[in-house]
Amino acid sequence: MGYTAAPLEKLIEQFSQFPGIGRKGATRMAYQVLSMSDADAAALAEAIQNAHTRLHRCRVCQNYTEAELCPICSSAKRDRSTICVVETPRDVQAFERTREYHGLYHVLHGLISPMDGIGAEQLSVKELLARLGSGEVKEVIMAMNPTVEGEATAMYLAKLIKPLGIKTTRLAYGLPVGGSLEYTDETTLYRALSGRDEL
After folding, report:
1. Taken in order 56, 62, 64, 67, is the CA torsion positive or negative?
2. Pairwise CA distance, residues 179 & 87, whole Å
3. Which CATH code, of 3.40.1360.10, 3.40.250.10, 3.30.420.40, 3.40.228.10, is assigned to 77-170?
4. What is the pLDDT along the chain (199 residues), one digit of tens a residue?
5. CB atoms near residue 150 (< 10 Å)
6. Dihedral sign of CA atoms 96, 101, 104, 109 in order
7. Which parts of the sequence are C4-type zinc fingers (predicted)?
8. Which of 7, 21, 117, 158 could bond to 168 as cystine, CB 3.0-4.6 Å?
9. Distances in Å between the alpha carbon of 138 and those of 41, 78, 120, 172, 184?
10. Helices (DSSP H) in the chain: which residue ranges?
11. In this structure, which CATH number among 3.40.1050.10, 2.60.15.10, 1.10.3210.10, 1.10.8.420 belongs to the domain 6-54?
C-alpha cells in the first residue's frame, strides 16, 4: 500500500466507520472533501458539529429534535390515540413520506438482540410504557422490520402492553407492489395469504 498523508488517513478512517462504507468508498469521500473549497469544507464540518450538539431526543417519543418536544409530538393535529413503534428515526421519516399516518410515534433506537448483547433496558421501552398510563392511547402499532430481532422485539412489547387493555397491532406483511409471485419466498407468500383483505 502506498503512502497516505496522516490527516487524509485519519479522514478515511472516520468515513469507513459509517455502515456500508468500505475502505474504497471512504477513500473516495475523503478525496471529495479535499477537493472542496475551504468554505464548503467548513460548512460540512459545522453541519456535523451542529447536528451532534443541537439535536437530542424528544422528551416524549425519543425522535431527534432541537426543541424539548419534536414537531410531531407538539402538533395539535396528530391523533393521540395511536402510537406507531419504530426502530430508528429514519423509520419515522419513511412513514411521514406516505402522508397516510396521522398518529404519534415512539422510537426504540434499536431492537432486542441477545446475540449483540442488546436487551430491552438499552432501548426506550420504559419511556414507551410511561406514555400508556394516561388512558389516551387506544392502539400501539408494531412497525419493526420483519427480521428475527424485529419479531422478538414486537412480541416482547406486545406481552407488556396487552395487559394494559390497549390494542396491539403489527404491520401487514405481504407482496410488494410490482413484485412477482414466482420470485417471492414462502414466508412472504404465507403472510400475504393469511393477511388477505376482502375486495
Report:
1. negative
2. 25
3. 3.40.1360.10
4. 556 789 999 999 999 999 899 999 999 999 999 999 999 999 999 999 999 999 999 999 999 999 999 999 999 999 999 999 999 999 999 999 988 899 999 999 999 888 888 888 889 999 999 999 888 999 999 998 888 899 899 999 999 999 999 999 988 777 677 777 677 777 777 777 777 766 5
5. 19
6. negative
7. 58-73
8. 158
9. 49, 14, 23, 19, 35
10. 6-15, 23-34, 38-54, 71-74, 89-98, 125-131, 148-161, 186-194
11. 1.10.8.420
Q: Which of 169, 162, 62 is nearest to 122 (CA)?
A: 62
Pairing of strands 64-65, 56-57: antiparallel
pTM over cut 0.85: no
